[in-house]
Amino acid sequence: MTRALLSRLLSKGGLLPVLRAVAPWSGVLALNYHRIGDGHASRFDRGLWSADAEGFDAHLRFLAAHFTIVTPRDLPAIRRAGRGRFVLVTFDDGYRDNYEAAFPILRRHGIAATFFIATGFLDCPRLPWWDEMAWMVRTSRRNGIEPGRWLPGPVAFDEPDREMAVRSLLRAYKSMPATSTDAFLEFLGEATGSGRCESGQAAGTWMSWDMVREMHAAGMVIGGHTVTHPVLARLTRERQWEEISTCARRLTEELGEPMRYFSYPVGSRSSFDDDTRACLRRAEVRQAFSYYGGTTTFERWDDFNLCRIGVERDMDGDWVRATVTLPGVFGRPN
Question: How many Å apart are CA 281 and CA 286, to the nearest integer?
Fold first, then answer.
């Protein structure tokens, strides 16, 4: 039985309130969003839209009614107490809809969320690699890509939205060495016939620093997410330090306080390593967040691997409610 079907059955059967009472979990559950809005017709990565505004509003109403919502600032005290159920609401990357759509809803509910910013996208707006790859596929007039040096097999462009092709190419990108990624993007531009995406396509994609400062002044927590969003473990220790320290410097320059919180780009188990942790400690980061599912329990607490569960576009309200009610079932690591 799929998680979607099981969550629907539990919700329609009225079992979720019972399960919240008789099978409570303990620890910290962090939900991670990327974009708020309707991305069904976007030429970019549609997997980044976590919910529309109405859905996000419903998520917050449910969370506020049943859990204590906290920020990373609260985690040291929570860990010392060693008991309770706590939820964090987090966002990655720095998309403009975080300010235009999510921020007003958060303020209306009186909830502070944490926004992890990839500073290079604000300083020099351009499409990130995942959005550019999706754009190449969706604007291509071809039917697919032939196998070769970069791809062991052909990638057919599945119609009508070519979503499976996009997902396949993103997986390939995430698994390759950092020294190959630029060449891979050049290859995709040629193989799709779309070329590389012009910088003008990024207009309106990212928040401005004024927007970030406004959210920060309103009580939102701002953390780091590197400069260019690389898979850190694919870089040398020196390059990791450059990404982390430059991100920290820019946040300090713009917000007037040091970077204490960080989320790993991609966030899988293999996306960060001991060198990453060493760089974060050197930068005086206090907590860092992964993105492969699971909860942080008091018995297995790691300040540099605080788990987060991604809210994906195929998760309806029933699924989200089931996830925070039974994270051991619905939020298990991927």
Answer: 8
pLDDT for 77: 97
Report strand pairing: 221-224 vs 155-156.
Answer: unpaired
Residue in 258, 252, 253, 264 with CA at minimum distance from that of residue 92 = 264
In tens, the pLDDT along 157-182 reads 999 999 999 999 999 999 999 999 99
Cβ(242)–Cβ(158) below 8 Å: no
| pTM score above 0.90 | yes
Residue 199 DSSP symbol: G
DSSP 286-297: -EEE--SS--B-
Pairing of strands 114-117, 261-263: unpaired
Q: CB neighbours of 77 closer than 8 A, spacing ≥ 6?
A: none
What gap in Å lies between CA 188 and CA 205, rounded to an integer? 22
Residue 195 to residues 34, 188, 304, Cα–Cα distance (Å): 26, 8, 39
Exposed / middle / buried, residue 325 (Cβ in 10 Å: 0-12, 13-18, 19+): buried
Shortest CA distance to 105 belongs to which of 173, 51, 28?
Answer: 51
Phi and psi (nearest 5°) for 26? Answer: -135, 135
pLDDT tens, residue by residue, 94-141: 999 999 999 999 999 999 999 999 999 999 999 999 999 999 999 999
pLDDT interval class at 326 (50, 70, 90): confident
CB 31 within 8 A of CB 43: no
